Amino acid sequence: MIRAAWFCVRSQPKHEHIAAAHLRQDADIDVFLPRIRFKRPTRRGQMTFTEALFPSYFFARFDFNLGLGKVHHAHGVRGLVHFGLQYPTIPDEVIADLRATLGDEEIHLVAQEYKPGDSVHIIGGPFHGLEAVVQQVMPGRQRVAVLMEFLGRQSTVVVERGQIVPDKGERKFVI
């Protein structure tokens, strides 16, 4: 009887998706690589990034005796997580809970959530570079009403959610 179990696989940095794809396609191994997608401000404005939820790690389900060589020699894999000669397994329930929480797609969208009173910087549009305070969030339209000082007076302006970032570079994630 072959007993497959989940193991934690260590990959080369930023190569989790490559290593996972090689194990899926070449070795026919069940892989779970939870990733998050989020927006981050850059010099060119707000950009969308996708990163592994556990950087340099992902999960693979295989029979240890039959699949260890395939996993160790897969492109992008550094090895299995181990403690001395012990290779810990991850219970099926833990992987099932992660999948239930994050969804089957493996990529979970992490949205920045703003609330009235939050200080923000405007990074796009005609008010680029100005500071403002969130007054109202309009989630259906992906817009935010902000209060800002412009030309010596306070004005309320509606901007797209992607045109603002939290003050002081703070990122607020809600999963």
Set down the secondary structure blueprint.
Blueprint: E1 4-11, H1 16-25, E2 30-32, E3 35-42, E4 45-52, E5 57-63, H2 64-72, E6 77-80, E7 89-90, H3 92-102, E8 107-109, E9 111-112, E10 119-122, E11 131-138, E12 143-150, E13 153-160, E14 164-166, E15 173-174
Parallel strand pairs: 3-8
Antiparallel strand pairs: 1-5, 1-6, 1-7, 2-5, 3-4, 9-15, 10-11, 10-14, 11-12, 12-13
Q: Overview of this structure, please?
A:
Helices cover 17% and strands 45% of the residues. The chain has 175 residues and is α+β, with helices and mostly antiparallel strands. It has two domains: 4-109, 2-Layer Sandwich (Alpha-Beta Plaits), CATH 3.30.70.940; 114-174, Roll (SH3 type barrels). It is elongated, with a radius of gyration of 22 Å. The protein starts with a strand and ends with a strand.
What key phrases describe this protein's structure?
single chain, 175 residues, alpha+beta, Alpha-Beta Plaits, 2 domains, five-stranded antiparallel beta sheet
Count of runs of 4 or more consecutive helical residues: 3
Kindly provide the radius of gyration, computed on alpha-carbon positions and rounded to a whole number of angstroms: 22 Å
- How would a textbook summarize the main sheet? 5 strands, antiparallel
CATH topology of the largest domain: Alpha-Beta Plaits
Oligomer: single chain
Name the average pLDDT.
85
CATH C-level class of the largest domain:
Alpha Beta
How much beta, percentage-wise?
Answer: 35-45%
